[in-house]
Structures are given as structure tokens and as C-alpha cells.
Amino acid sequence: MSVPAIAAGRERRQPAFERYLNILGPLAMIVAIGVVMAVFEPRFFRITNIRIILQDAAIYMVLGMAMTLVITGAGIDLSIGSIAALSAIIMAIFIKDLNVAVYAAMLMALIVGVGCGLVNGLIITLLRVPDLITTLSMDLVFRGLALVLAAGAVLQRFPEPIPAIGRGRILGDTVPIPIVIGLVVLLIGVFIYRYTPLGRYAIAIGGNRESAMLSGINVRRNKVYHYMLMGGAAALAGIMLTGRLNAVQATVAEGFALHTIAAVVVGGTVLFGGRGTMLGTLVGVILLSMVTNALVILRMAFFWQLVASGVIIVASVSFYSYLERRGKGGSE
């Protein structure tokens, strides 16, 4: 059986209306939040606040693109926050302590991120350690390295273009640069997912690993590529976060992994692999950013943000699991 046939077969098992539900579900939640905020806090719809929501979402657009590919391929990466922190710390050290040119330091950060992803991928494929255990363990390793290198210091005041990447604006000071970066990365993700072997192989591997191997797919190599892409995306997110704060320390980005996974799953990507959607990831990212922003505007305590995010995740996963079971039941 050919690779396109495996991927196409995986997609066909989901009825057409259910494919739309993957997007319509989160969109309905967005509309519901909008209606509630229109009643209780109309300033939620001010242009400045919408810009804040999208700017908050931009980093998770970058992370969500790669995480969608990883999860579609039946993987998961819990180390992306530590990779982002380690990459940003190394970039800062190169700029502040070694006087390396800023673009070279940014390139080094991306190389570090890709390298961390490579390490994750090799441990998973060569040592055959489960993805969850590998990335959870390496999260501790990468975070520890960041703490050692930073030595407790807060590195700040970086030269351009780092601040511009994190909080700059274009088109008459109206469109934040992070939003542009996030959308461009997602568009690249759509291209990879739909039109390249890397995306098609992810669907095939996540749908049925054994069938993918029998069809000639090098599963190990593609898994490594997925994690390398994830590491590079995490490094870019670290650069964006550093630019937004114009500072970095080793403890930043601690919630990146769970927030990103939540957005991807809420958007309709199947947590156990085989099916994903970049558009759904975009919707999921915006939904979670809206929830956080709405609770801040309503002056709710931080722990209520965690409660709301958790409820949305559980509700979404339960709904998609129901659709999955229903689809399997209908095909038997």
C-alpha cells in the first residue's frame, strides 16, 4: 500500500461533517466568549486588546505548528519550554558576554533548538524510550543547563532586531510583527503538512505505524525530523519571548508545553496521532488566548485561568474522543 493511500484512508474514516466540527467546535467557544464579554466587559473588543490577544497567541502559533506535526505522528514533546529557555540563554550569552553579532547569535539559538530536538529524536528512535518519558526527562536536562549557564542572572536590553521580533509593529505601527511571524510559520506548516512527504508520513505513522513501515517509510528518520522541527520552533519562540520582554532568565517559558499541547488538541488534532489540522491549531491558540485575556480583564485570579483552560481541554478531548469512537463504530 502506498503512502498517499495510507494517509488518504486515514482521512476518509472521518465523516465530512465531523471534519468541520473540529473547527466549528472551538469557533463556537470563541463566539460564546465574545457574547459573554460583550455583555460584561465591552472593552474586550477594543483594538488594543485584540492586538494583545493576537500578540499573546503568536508564540503559540509557532509552537503549535510543529507540535501539530509531532502529535499527528503519534509523538509528544514536553521539553519545548526548556528548549526555548536554553536557546534564548545561549543567544543572550553570545551577545552579552562574547560580543557576537546579533544575527549570528540568533542563528546559534536556532541551531541549539534544532540540536535539542535531534537529541530527543535520537533517544526516542535509537534507545526506544517512549516519547513522553524522553521529553519529560530532557525537559529537566535542558532546564538544568539553562540554569547553569545563566547562573541566576537576568540578561536584558538586547539590540535590534530582537525587541522588534518580540514586540515591534509594521504597516503604520498597526500590525505587531510577532503576529506576522506566527501566521507565516503556520502557513509554512500548512505547506509541510499537506504537500511534503514529512507531513504525509506523519499522518501515515500516526495512523498505523506498522503499515507505514511496510509501505517503505523510514519511521525513525521521520520521527527525528519531527522533533528537530519542534526544537527549531521552540528556539524561535524563545527568541520572540526574549524580544517581547527584552530580557531572559533560565526560568522562562515553563508553561509552553502544556499550553501548546492544549491548543493543538482543542483545535482538533487527535492526541494519539493520525490526524491533525493547522487551521484548527490556529483556532485553538486564539481560543485559549481569549480565555486568558477575558479572565484577566474580569479581574479573575490566576488560578481561575488554569481552571478554565483545564475545563476546555477536558471538554474538547472528550468531544473528539466521542467523535472518534462514533466514527469507528460506524465503520465496523
Summarize the topology.
Blueprint: H1 3-12, H2 16-40, H3 47-72, H4 80-96, H5 102-126, H6 131-150, E1 155-156, H7 162-167, E2 169-170, E3 175-176, H8 177-195, H9 197-207, H10 209-214, H11 219-245, E4 247-248, H12 256-266, H13 278-297, H14 302-331
Antiparallel strand pairs: 1-4, 2-3
Helix pairs in contact: 1-9, 2-13, 3-8, 3-9, 3-11, 3-12, 3-13, 4-5, 4-6, 4-11, 5-6, 5-11, 8-9, 9-11, 12-13, 12-14, 13-14
Briefly summarize what is shown.
It contains 14 helices and four strands. With 332 residues, the chain is mostly helical.
Low-confidence stretches: 8-12
Average of the residue pLDDT scores: 90
Class from secondary-structure proportions: mainly alpha
The run of helices and strands is HHHHHHEHEEHHHHEHHH
| Termini separation | 21 Å
How many strand units?
4
The CATH architecture designation is Orthogonal Bundle
What would you say this structure looks like, in words?
The protein is built from 14 helices and four strands. It is mainly alpha-helical and 332 residues long. It has a single domain (3-331), classed as Orthogonal Bundle (ABC transporter involved in vitamin B12 uptake, BtuC), CATH 1.10.3470. The strands form two sheets. Strands 1-4 form a two-stranded antiparallel ribbon. A two-stranded antiparallel ribbon has the order 2-3. A hairpin with a 4-residue loop joins strand 2 (169-170) and strand 3.
What characteristics describe this protein?
14 helices, ABC transporter involved in vitamin B12 uptake, BtuC, mainly alpha, 332 residues, 76% helix, globular
